[in-house]
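Hypothesis: this fold can be encoded by more than one sequence.
Test: take the structure tokens below, design a sequence, compare later.
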């Protein structure tokens, strides 16, 4: 059997017997791995806390907030370290709900919006989109949804803050459909809003869940009244119930009925209304994730697709985080398990380096603390401490040569050129930037002409982090200056001569990134468009895959 082969290949691995394939499949089926996407202030932190309440980790309730307020502190080195130290522990949260294992991955937002934010989404199987119902679709939501679309990630939508005056719910759905280009299937519908918010009507169950402000129940259960025609409702709030009936008719006529297939294809999103701060509608979200969102699915690798319930272990690194102690240069690589069963103490192969490592120290992320992991299955995230030899995109297996694909680098939106005060430190600068580039902290471009290095990032805080880490870890006092560059595209083409001509003609704006890929650094959108038009044989890409 498969298990014999595995055991023979790694004789010293794990003490306990490998699980039967059926047992692995059962563990996979009960896993849900998702991330929350939202614009700052829509309520992601609040909702995360409420979701954790369901796991029984009620002591968490203040923790997420404490971490967030740290974000607004000054960004000197110790502060950044402190924040990152805390966020290592809480950037992955695992909890149980209705006999399911839920992995919630934090997608950093706010000022520390970085490539991590994007790449975390390559490690999830579904996403929860939180919208402030007073504001509707906002800029960061659009960006994050675009990334979800690359893998057709199924999206559940939560319209938050119905206890406030919000925009018209029908108009909100319209905006979602037209701006985000995603079909909306309302599952609950709000009754009133703000001071007159009475609750939500469950369109599939024909039930009304009554809202009471300030009633923050840990189990999120609110009084339920069966049937929209129930006379009790007309007694309780005659005006709102009349309006509800009219709206429900409109909704049935104008919107899409919920369709599981369409949801799983990423074409349609079920929409829930509620109020995170009141824990209202949160349990419905969690149920939707458990009932509808997909368990871990097969993943593409270079040689074949890897199914989650295969016996041998495999996974890939989607994020690297420097540890708290800069003196030790310890890093934690976040690995998403893609197949098999991981067990502490087992030997796995680091495929890029062709090296076998024994994983005796691994961290997992329970809602309440950072703990040693004993076993993990597809969908789970484990943290591998290392000294800088692991990179984003690295694959691990029990020996089979496979490289998981689809872990992208995103064209940066912000650029700086780097200068150093002490020219004797040029070597350290290059070494530092090389390593920080590999870690995914920043993108480094070396123009074909000229000696300045150009740094690129998707969030400006990345530059501050890089500057302080260069100083603290490499002893390099670097100065970052603005540049005329406004966007970057990776360039490919079949004809080597055309590529060489391109390089020669536009030397100042053509550069190589840390992995040796050719890129064009444009000075404006117009400039980019003109260049694309002038070089029709070349392709310009806004993302590139890890290589
Ligand atoms: P994040 O930036 O997306 O993490 O948002 P937070 O969870 O920090 O919420 C932003 C602000 O909105 C905070 O002041 C919250 O207290 C508030 N908030 C969150 N959910 C609700 C809600 O359901 N109703 C109201 N009225 N305010 C809310």
């Amino acid at each position: 059997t498969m298990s014999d082969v595995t055991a023979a290949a790694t004789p010293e691995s794990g003490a306990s017997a490998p699980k039967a394939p059926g047992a692995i499949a059962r563990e996979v089926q009960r896993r849900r791995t998702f991330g929350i996407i939202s614009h700052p202030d829509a309520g992601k932190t609040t909702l995360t806390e409420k979701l954790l309440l369901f796991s029984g980790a009620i002591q968490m309730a203040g923790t997420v907030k404490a971490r967030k307020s740290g974000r607004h502190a000054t960004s000197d080195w110790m502060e950044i370290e402190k924040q990152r130290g805390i966020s290592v522990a809480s950037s992955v949260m695992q909890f149980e709900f209705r006999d399911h294992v839920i992995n919630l991955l934090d997608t950093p937002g706010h000022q520390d919006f970085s490539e991590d934010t994007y790449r975390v989404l390559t490690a999830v199987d579904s996403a929860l989109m939180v919208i402030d119902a007073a504001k509707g679709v906002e800029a960061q939501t659009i960006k994050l949804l675009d990334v979800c679309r690359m893998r057709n990630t199924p999206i559940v939508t939560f319209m938050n803050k119905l206890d406030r005056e919000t925009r018209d719910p029908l108009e909100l759905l319209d905006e979602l459909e037209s701006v985000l280009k995603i079909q909306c299937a309302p599952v609950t519908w709000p009754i009133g809003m703000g001071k007159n918010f009475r609750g939500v009507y469950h369109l599939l169950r024909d039930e009304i869940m009554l809202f009471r402000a300030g009633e923050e129940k840990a189990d999120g259960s609110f009084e339920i009244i069966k049937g929209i025609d129930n006379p009790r409702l007309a007694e309780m709030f005659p005006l709102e119930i009349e309006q509800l009936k009219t709206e429900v008719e409109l909704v049935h006529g104008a919107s899409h009925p919920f369709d599981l297939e369409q949801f799983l294809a990423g074409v349609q999103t079920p929409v829930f209304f509620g109020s995170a701060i009141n824990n209202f509608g949160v349990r419905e979200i969690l149920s939707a994730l458990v009932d509808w969102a997909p368990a871990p699915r097969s993943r593409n690798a270079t040689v074949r697709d890897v199914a989650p319930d295969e016996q041998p272990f495999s996974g890939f690194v989607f994020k690297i985080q420097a540890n708290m102690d800069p003196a030790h240069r310890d890093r934690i690589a976040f690995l998403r398990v893609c197949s098999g069963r991981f067990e502490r103490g087992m030997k796995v192969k680091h495929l890029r380096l062709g090296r076998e490592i024994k994983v005796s120290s691994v961290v997992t992320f329970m809602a309440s603390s950072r703990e040693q992991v004993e076993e993990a299955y597809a969908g789970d995230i484990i943290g591998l401490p290392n000294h800088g030899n692991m990179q984003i995109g690295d694959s691990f297996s029990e020996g089979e040569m496979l490289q998981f694909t689809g872990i992208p680098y995103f064209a940066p939106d912000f650029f700086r050129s780097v200068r150093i005060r002490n020219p004797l430190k040029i070597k350290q600068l290059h070494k530092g930037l090389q390593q920080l580039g590999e870690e995914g902290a920043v993108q480094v471009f070396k123009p074909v002409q000229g000696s300045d290095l150009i740094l690129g990032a998707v969030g400006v805080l990345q530059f501050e982090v890089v500057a302080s880490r260069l100083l603290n870890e490499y002893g390099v006092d670097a100065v970052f200056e603005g540049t005329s560059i406004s966007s970057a595209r990776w360039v490919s083409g079949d004809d080597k001569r055309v590529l060489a001509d391109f390089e020669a003609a536009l030397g100042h704006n053509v550069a190589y990134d840390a992995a040796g890929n050719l890129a064009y650094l444009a000075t404006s959108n117009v400039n980019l468009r003109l260049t694309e038009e002038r070089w029709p044989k070349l392709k310009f890409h806004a993302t590139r895959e890890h290589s």
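DSSP finds 16 helices and 33 strands in the chain. The mean pLDDT is 84.
Hypothesis status: open.
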